[in-house]
Amino acid sequence: MKRRDFLRSSALGLAVPSSLMNADTLKTNKNNPVICSTWNFGLPANELAWKVLDNGGKAMDAAEAGARHAESDPENSSVGFGGLPDEKGNVTLDACVMDSTGNAGSVAFLQNIKHPVSVARKVMEETKHVMLVGEGARQFAVSNGFEEINLLTEQSEKDWKKWLKERREMTPHETHDTLSVLVQDKMGDLAGACTTSGWAYKMHGRVGDSPIIGAGLFVDNEIGCAAATGLGEEVIKTTGSFLVVELMRQGYDPTKACEEALNRVIKAHNG
């Protein structure tokens, strides 16, 4: 990858100050909830999350509700139902959640389940594990009442067949639109959710940063929380979200923390 293209795609991964919350700046008034999300399609997710908070819901409830909204939208080709498939035509989904206590749940390479974020929450709350993948994750979802559906819409299938003919290499900045939702509720507690269908036409079995705690999402109720979207492989190698939160612990403001995390990625590529 050329350095210019690398910078453009990697910047989407961590330099997203609007998706960061810092305890010092936001917890000065715990009666003021805050919701942040990635990308324009996060706006309706935010609206739904606000309704949950208005009705007395907690940060985790709101984050999950916002993510579920995006997962249900067939017009969103990077999340949930209607997401673009892998190279074999299979839609595989990744998601994770993390709450104010540091508890976390995650699923990866999940097929035929519309709401991976809710399965991830089930993993967090009802098992002793953090992450389930593939067929095991699907079986767990079904055993907990999740309905199996075909996630490949007509439009996504059409786009995939076009790609099969062209075999054009998809760049990360074309298919990076993971949804991350970060929430602070009126009690001052933080939570986050991250959900994606991953890199379009990826290798079968590929998993990016989104379901990896510390990479795609990290929550520290004392300091803040961070989420990532972009070139997941680079975010994983730097444990990007964890790094940003730890930099905030050291006194960096969110923007500077993102910039420093990105600089470390660039340095690793002899930038």
Structure description:
The structure is a single chain. By secondary structure, this protein is an alpha+beta fold. The protein has one domain (3-268): 4-Layer Sandwich (Glutamine Phosphoribosylpyrophosphate, subunit 1, domain 1). The chain is 39% helix and 16% strand. The protein has helices at 3-14, 23-26, 42-54, 59-71, 116-126, 134-143, 154-166, 232-237, 240-249, 254-268, and strands at 21-22, 34-37, 93-98, 104-110, 131-133, 179-184, 190-196, 217-220, 224-227. The chain has a six-stranded mixed β-sheet. The chain has a three-stranded antiparallel β-sheet with strand order 1-9-8. Helix 3 packs antiparallel against helix 4 (59-71). InterPro entries: Ntn_hydrolases_N, Peptidase_T2. This is Glycosylasparaginase.
Topology overview:
Blueprint lengths: L2 H12 L6 E2 H4 L7 E4 L4 H13 L4 H13 L21 E6 L5 E7 L5 H11 L4 E3 H10 L10 H13 L12 E6 L5 E7 L20 E4 L3 E4 L4 H6 L2 H10 L4 H15 L3
Parallel strand pairs: 4-5
Antiparallel strand pairs: 1-9, 2-6, 3-4, 3-7, 6-7, 8-9
Question: Keywords, please?
Answer:
single chain, 271 residues, alpha+beta, Glutamine Phosphoribosylpyrophosphate, subunit 1, domain 1, six-stranded mixed β-sheet, 10 helices, globular, hydrolase activity, acting on carbon-nitrogen (but not peptide) bonds, in linear amides, Ntn_hydrolases_N
